[in-house]
Write a structure and sequence with these properties.
This protein has about 500 residues and is mainly alpha-helical. The protein contains 18 helices and no strands. Helix 9 runs antiparallel to helix 14, helix 13 runs antiparallel to helix 16 and helix 14 crosses helix 16. The radius of gyration is 23 Å and the shape is globular.
């Protein structure tokens, strides 16, 4: 008598070989980009340790200091302009990242992804660790730390174009907003893990707050070299299915990323949240001016600039704000700041689900941005009154701030990729995504810079700046929101599930 197959084995065998490979690649790329963000987070945790309230620190018994009120600080951040110096470090990374992102995709499309991504993670680990080694080498030069940040910003641009291109080779049609929202949570997961790891060492030896994340991303680079499979054809798996013309007409778009490697069926583009160039035979890349003429590109680009400005200001300055206002130590402030990223995970998924259901990307972003502005004001005034209030406001603000940012960098790019002027021309799509995400990276650089310049005048002014940025982001979406509402008011026969943006 034949024995029944165990339930676990039935579950395993219910998935095809292609499904297992696709799941494995999705998991690997999630891990890879999580490690990228994990290595970016320590600087925000360490800031409150580099410049401390020395009057509250117990002096060592063998330290004979009388009038030095900055004895526990780390030069050169022991000066009154320390917040401006922190802004220099942030922008050394972010400006280099913004510039490098416009050209990184060209290298990623011309080099084997496995080699390019492995190189990027190994070098990112090196420069992240070099920042922490400044603690053990007793380096007090702003130029050294700024140089390390610039180099790290450049090599970090290898990450997003590579993981997007790889996932694009493997995944075809499916749910858009929900799947993208879940996969895109690697950003917040990386921020959370980076905060927790850096916080574990910041109060004892802040150098380890950089060295450990550096080792983690370097290890991920080794993992990538040995296990990443760039294309289904490399392991005799079937390429992903692409949507038909009928799907184009009805507005059905790719879930995660359309394949950038299907030779026989043509290339329909990818939803890259970072700029990339996909080389396509006989496809002519459009100019920046032509890309700007595509409906929605300018509006979403400028909206992302201000949305990313707010998000990255929190990324780099929230732990210091919590430390200064709520008087937590560096570790406690870092741990508390992870709640903002946890809210971002929920906000990104919620934005994807709602926009899938309503088929209104711009309206979903608009509503969340409108709600975020007053919530930022409320958080600044009552967010530190109690632990419960702090937790609740951080989760709420994180969801409202990061939800639109996540939606624009994923599902919105897919929607723009369905425009008739981009059909079958993924090189044109890469130009569009370069404009959107390059513009967003400029905002990511400006936010922390403005925070460093404004914060000496008071944290209230920083929040007024963030609220103004949210309002501006809403204004740039107003035309698209109007078009979506007009589309909803049309008869169902005229709107087959998608309002052209």
């Amino acid at each position: 008598m034949k024995s029944p197959v165990a339930p676990g084995i039935r579950l395993i065998t219910s998935f095809s070989r292609d499904s297992w490979y696709r799941g494995f690649i999705l998991f690997l790329t999630f891990i890879f980009y999580t490690s990228y963000h994990l290595s970016r987070k320590p600087i925000s945790i360490v800031k409150s340790e580099l410049h401390r309230n020395c009057s509250q620190v117990i002096r060592p018994a063998d330290l004979n200091i009388t009038d030095n009120v900055t004895w526990c600080d780390w030069a050169p951040f022991d000066q009154d302009n320390y917040q401006t110096l922190f802004g220099v470090l942030d922008n050394s990374f972010l400006i280099a990242y913004a510039i490098g992102m416009f050209i990184s995709g060209m290298f990623g499309e011309r080099l084997p992804l496995r080699y390019y991504l492995s190189f990027g993670m190994l070098t990112s680990g090196l420069f992240t660790a070099l920042f922490g080694l400044g603690f053990y080498w007793n380096i007090h030069s702003l130029g050294y730390y700024a140089f390390v940040q610039v180099m790290n910003g450049l090599v970090q641009t290898t990450g997003w174009p590579s993981v997007v291109a790889c996932v694009g080779n493997w995944f075809g049609k499916g749910k858009r907003g929900f799947i993208m929202g879940v996969w895109n949570s690697h950003t917040s997961v990386g921020n959370i893990l980076g905060s927790l790891i850096a916080g574990a060492f910041v109060s004892t030896a802040w150098g380890m707050s950089f060295i450990v994340p550096g080792l983690i991303i370097a290890s991920s680079g080794i993992l990538c070299f040995f296990f990443l499979v760039e294309k289904p054809e490399d392991v005799n798996c079937s390429p992903p299915q692409h949507h038909s013309d009928g799907d184009q007409e009805s507005g059905e778009t790719d879930p995660l990323l359309r394949s950038s490697s299907n030779v026989n069926r043509g290339i329909n583009g990818s939803i890259s949240a970072e700029p990339q160039e996909i080389v396509e035979e006989d496809a002519k890349a459009i100019s920046f001016r032509e890309a700007l003429c595509i409906p929605g590109v300018v509006e979403f680009s400028l909206c992302l600039l201000f949305a990313k400005l707010v998000s990255y200001t929190f990324l780099y300055w929230l732990p210091l704000y919590i430390s200064n206002v709520a008087h937590f130590d560096a570790k406690q402030a870092g741990d508390m700041s992870t709640l903002f990223d946890a809210g971002g995970i929920l906000g990104g998924i919620l934005a994807g689900v709602v926009s899938d259901y309503t088929e209104g990307r711009a309206t979903t972003c608009f509503v969340m941005l409108v709600a975020a502005a007053p919530m930022l004001y409320v958080y600044n005034y009552i967010g530190q009154r109690s632990l419960a209030t702090t937790i609740g406001m951080l989760l709420l603000c994180g969801g409202l701030v990061n939800g639109p940012y996540a939606l624009i960098t994923t599902a919105v790019s897919a929607d723009l990729g369905t425009h008739e002027s981009l059909r079958g021309n993924s090189r044109a799509l890469s130009t569009v995504t370069a404009i959107i995400d390059g513009t967003g990276s400029i905002g990511a650089a400006l936010g922390p810079l403005f925070a460093g310049l404004i914060s000496p005048t008071g944290w209230n002014n920083v929040f007024y700046m963030l609220i103004s940025a949210d309002i501006l982001a809403c204004l740039f979406l107003s035309r698209l929101v109007y078009k979506e509402f007009r589309g909803w008011c049309q008869p169902v026969s005229q709107v087959r599930g998608f309002t052209e943006i």
